[in-house]
Amino acid sequence: MNKVNTKVTLRWNVKDSGLLTPDEKELLLQKLTARLTTDGTLLINAQEKRSQLQNKEETLSKLEQLLKQALTKKKKRKATKPSKSAVQSRLHKKKKHADKKKWRQNRE
Question: How far apart are CA 27 and CA 32, in angstroms?
Answer without folding.
Answer: 8
